[in-house]
């Protein structure tokens, strides 16, 4: 039928003249076929877009679950728990009051982890409080070997990915030597009013545990998903710095 319309135009007749000469039943068939073809094409396009969207959501959910699993696995690290219980065991006999404070901070740390790990963001003030509690548990085993410095000008009204700062602090503690003469100094500070950084002096040791790159890689993926930006890593001979974006409340 389309060929007939084309020929009618070439021969000087209008498409309307040709259409008027078509039997009504053929015209109905032509219009019905065109409608079915258009509808079928639209359905196929819609279904393909729907499956693409579902696949993308599934991938994002898988990456989010992977990050949450890695975070939980890191926090329920048997070495950390064993060392914490060892510290607690000695404090029970030497300083019961300090032992009670230690228990409270240990319980609070795990409560924060379980309550906030599934969330996309948490208030920066809450994350900083969690980091201080986590660092306190480590510092009791050697106060003069570790130092945590937090910028007082940090915008605590901002938000951040949960457990992100703690992960970076943990990496610094895990992969650097620390002595009284050469303490490990970890600094948390504001960068360009939009990023927050965790920086430490490099005193690398050969760790027997897995490399932290898996945790850092998962964190980078989550930052990209939630913030649409990348984690920034700056490394020199003396310092190691990781910067992650802050999320401003609207």
From TrEMBL:
Keyword ATP-binding: yes or no? no
InterPro entries this protein is in?
Bact_2-comp_sensor_kinase, HATPase_C_sf, Sig_transdc_His_kin_internal
GO CC list: membrane
> Which Pfam families has this protein been placed in?
His_kinase
Residue span(s) of domain Signal transduction histidine kinase internal region: 68-146
Q: Which PANTHER family match?
A: SENSOR HISTIDINE KINASE YPDA
Specify the domain of life of the species encoding this protein: Bacteria
Its protein name is: Signal transduction histidine kinase internal region domain-containing protein
Question: Where, by residue number, does the polypeptide cross the bilayer?
Answer: 31-54
Q: Does the keyword Transmembrane apply?
A: yes
Keyword annotations of the record? Membrane, Transmembrane, Transmembrane helix
GO molecular-function terms, A-Z: phosphorelay sensor kinase activity
